[in-house]
Amino acid sequence: MTQAITDSRFFRQECYIGGDWRSGGETIDVVNPANGETIGTVPDFGRNEARNAIAAAAEAFPAWRARTAEERGKFCRAFYEALMDNQQILGEILTLEQGKPLAEAKGEIAYGAAFFKWFAEEAVRVYGDVIPSPWTDKRIVVTKEPVGVVCSITPWNFPTAMIARKAAAALAAGCPIIAKPASQTPYSALAMGVIAEDIGLPKGVFSVITGEAAPIGDEFCENPAVKKITFTGSTAVGEELASRAIKTMKRVSMELGGNAPLIIFDDADLDKAVEGAIACKYRNAGQTCVCANRILVQSGIYDAFAEAFAKRVSGLTVGDGLKDGVDQGPLIEEKAVQKVEDHIADALSKGAQTAAGGHRHQLGGTFFEPTVLTGVTPEMVIAKDETFGPVAPLFKFDTEEEAAHMANDTEYGLASYLYTNDLGRAWRMMEALEYGMVAINEGILSTPVAPFGGVKESGVGREGSKYGLEDYLNIKYALFGGL
Ligand code: ADP
């Protein structure tokens, strides 16, 4: 199967820069996390190639912004169609390098594609404003303009969708974009380069560069031709990039870490809460920034939930994501497994118990058992740090106030979830939660039509929805005098 995937024309081992496929010099190995085997290599490009990509983007910018919104929308629509027409092979490439089950990978292709469709339609809705003038002989007009060259840095957990969320909005707004994917998962990004070429995007409007993160990031942050940095990844790297980008006053969008609470009240529908928690926690083996990191359960339903949830979790199938019937693939790398083990060991040493899993999976490598811990308390490391793995820690609370306090007791503020059948409580909690996103009686909330993003140290900016386009637009105020 691997051979068939790597023989595909979407599988490229070169970078797509300024409309050309480029290679040469050092390379980086890319490994299949399901078996540790090397899939291939990609160029280990650095500052020079990043500078070239930026120069090509800057050159492409005037003509790209000058196109009508409808024309740019058509390119976005074509990008959407191409992703969907090739969903199977793109999903296979994604699973091969990332590990998630193929059904999830194909779901990610569709999710990413949907951003191109959404922004194809939004491109034509970049409205300005006319403001009532305080002067009789002057008029005030507000227009919106593309910010200019955008550089994007994205992580390995959603190799296609994280780029799509940024690129679709940038292209629709009139900005060229350069994507730097994570070194673990470059092939999904390079496949998007193939699509950009296929649909005839002008040279330099969409480039993909692979290589060591730091030098490429340095060029992105320091090059004055770059007007915006859009990043998804860890809070530590995001804060570093933002602080450097601000030296030349670049716009920034930062989608950073989360420590999502999933709160289950006594009055919740138990079966729905269990299913929601499964989807929220074990999707992508727990490696998403919106995965429930803490499950807070009210005391009256705690034992019943723990039992039903642990039973369901024990039935999840772990394996190579390319095989049928797999619910959970491998973790991305050994370091990720060690973090999971550390979090579990710390919790157990402080009094938690294992209700399901708890160990490396018998398949070896980076496979880990879907795990449930009970009796978890706020003093444990797992309460503060994002585990980014298949471990669900169950905390106990008594009152609504206590739940809100526990949920907000973190520097993060990305996604939050709650299960209750009390409408008043749902509304009160929605207001009390210091999060950019709140899902009520649902375990999955991402969609291109809604604004994705966080508050506190989870970042700035929004992706998707009508708000997502604003992140790629500058406001211009024009005063027409002497009337
Ligand atoms: P994760 O834990 O998800 O890998 P990171 O923040 O380390 O989160 O990585 C997210 C993305 O940021 C990846 O593409 C990675 O290569 C990139 N990255 C990591 N360190 C830097 C850096 N110093 N400068 C620029 N990009 C970086």
Automatic annotation (TrEMBL):
One Gene Ontology cellular component: cytosol
SUPFAM superfamilies documented for this protein: ALDH-like (SSF53720)
UniProt keywords, alphabetically: Oxidoreductase
EC number(s) per entry: 1.2.1.16
GO biological process: gamma-aminobutyric acid catabolic process
Top EC group: oxidoreductase
InterPro entries tied to this protein: Ald_DH/histidinol_DH, Ald_DH_C, Ald_DH_CS_CYS, Ald_DH_CS_GLU, Ald_DH_N, Aldehyde_DH_dom, Aldehyde_DH_Superfamily, Succ_semiAld_DH
Presence of keyword Oxidoreductase: yes
Residues at the catalytic site: 255
PROSITE patterns xrefs: ALDEHYDE_DEHYDR_CYS, ALDEHYDE_DEHYDR_GLU
One Pfam entry name: Aldedh
Gene3D superfamilies, per database record: Aldehyde Dehydrogenase, Chain A, domain 1, Aldehyde Dehydrogenase, Chain A, domain 2
Aldehyde dehydrogenase domain mapped to chain residues: 23-477
Source superkingdom: Bacteria
Entry's Gene Ontology molecular function annotations: succinate-semialdehyde dehydrogenase (NAD+) activity
Recorded family membership: Belongs to the aldehyde dehydrogenase family.
PANTHER family, per database record: SUCCINATE-SEMIALDEHYDE DEHYDROGENASE, MITOCHONDRIAL (PTHR43353)
Annotated protein name in UniProt: Succinate-semialdehyde dehydrogenase (NADP(+))
Species this chain originates from: Hyphococcus luteus
Lineage of source species: Bacteria, Pseudomonadati, Pseudomonadota, Alphaproteobacteria, Parvularculales
Gene expressing this chain: gabD
